[in-house]
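Page header: ASSEMBLY MODEL / two components / 644 residues total.
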Amino acid sequence: MVYFINDIITGALIGLLYALVAMGFVVIYRASKVFNFAQGELVIIGGFIVWFTTMQLGLSLWLSIPLSLVLAGLVGYLIERIFLTKLIGESVFSMVMVTVGLLILLRGVVLLLFGASVRPFPIIFPLKPLLLGDMLIPMNLLIGGIITIVAAVGLSWFFNWTRSGLRMTAVAEDHVVAASMGISVKGSIAFAWILGAILSTIGAMIFLSGKSLTFLASDIGFAALPVALFAGLESIGGLVLAGIIIGVIQSLTTNYLDPIIGGSLGSVVPYIIMLAILLIRPTGLFGWRTIERV
Amino acid sequence: MDPSGIFPTSYRADRRLVRTRWQAVCLALFLVVMLAMPYLVSGRIIAVLNMMLISAVIAVGLQICTGYAGQINLGQAAFMGVGAYTASILASKTGLTFLLTIPLAGFAAALFGFLFGLTATRIKGFYLALTTLAAQFIFHFAVLNLPSSWLGGSNGVTVPAAEIFGLRFVTETQQFYMNLAVAAIMIAGAFGIIRSRFGRAFIAVRDDDVAAGIMGINVAATKANAFLIGAFYAGVGGALWAYMIRFVGVDQFTLFHSIFFVAMIIVGGMGSIVGALVGVFVIRTIQEVIATVGPNIADSASFLGGDIVFAGMNVILGGVIALFMILEPKGVMHRWNILKSSYRIWPFPY
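Prediction written out in full:
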């Protein structure tokens, strides 16, 4: 029973990590109507920036973390300036394809600059797990979960209650209408990408803390996709619930179903959930009901 | 547009693919050169041409699905994989001739594609891209986790050589003729599909699905059909791939390969069969050049990471996709058509 509860808690915390990465998707979507396929690449770029500032430059964590976040924001801004500003008002297809192009472009750049070798990632959160009776809770995931919840509450307040947040919401509804109401579409998209890159970097710190860093870590971007869809692409608060549900289901599948069938069903369960959501309720749990159904 | 003085006087004439004598000459010349290729160039180039022919089949399928019917498809490599696995299992376990396994591979892939095409009847845009992405992951999972006696798991499957009347297609030249024949049939078929009522329905659905529905086109069936046809092409291409490489493994059909195919049709031009062929030629040539010069660059520029071929390929392809989307979303064929029509109406500006 203790193990069962432990699995549920660990699953929920991993789900919260997915939710944090998915928050990068949602923030970019929520403020620019661009669905960013290259989210996982932003996570490894964030990871490499953190690795570079701590391990290469040798800065202390108190200095390197803020510096990494600033640098990540700068990368996000550059990507937006080079690729996305030019596509304002273009079709969904163009936007999706540019982020797909970015997906392999950024992976190539990371491979060129850093190579495929495995690097140690700095220990940002204490390695010692939290012991609750017989239960083991990884410290990085626990702190990460708290960060996720705080970020979700903060960002959902920002997007739903502040004036600038509502402006960005208008941009996500329609670029042309928003622009004609005097809202800066460019500014909104730039902000979205800066925020998306920063959230990805925080996700990278939690995910990789004390582990090793390779470009394969970008898979977490695709792992976070189902969470973003389950919550509905517009809902930031909903990510927390969706993340916990998917994380728990995945953890239980891995621990109880996989030994029976002898395969890794756990890694594919999120995508099966995603397909089911797309078929049954494409808006997700809390998304806006604006998806055109055919 | 037609050159000055050419006016179709019947519907048949208006539907013709080869419209002028000069085009007929060019087409015949092209086919003759292709047939004579093994006598003109060395073995390495034949190997590259084989890759191009197989990619052409798959990219033309994607062109029908994405370029003509407007359904975003990021799972073309998975559909190709389904075809490749079907062909290799049929060939190695039942010993069927390739004349049967290649079409059967196409049908198996078409069925798989149709299942995901069904989701296209409910959702569109990038939501659709997500389901095709899920197809990619589920294919990967299925191959790796089904009992390894079925699909070979992570070890892959070895494929016997294609064989007919005691003639085995082993050398690159023999495979070249096999690939050329299949590619010619498939591409001619694609022109036929595009000219038929299905092709017109695809274009109508792509341009405006509400209007298409009002005109009496069954939008849902048309979208599912587009996936069916696109996946059939991918399956046939996959079968050819299996017979060429003689080994099928799950790593040959990743999301990256799907993106390569998307890059081909974007570079060539959406909504043009010839564009897909041009795109295949451009992308495969770039790939070959990088594979050739990559190791030299890696030697001279040691500060760059080790896996320079794969990395460089990603950088260039990603850059190409982004650049074309930003600068010329209609692709190379669009530019060519502008050039052609301005040549034909010269000296008048329009």
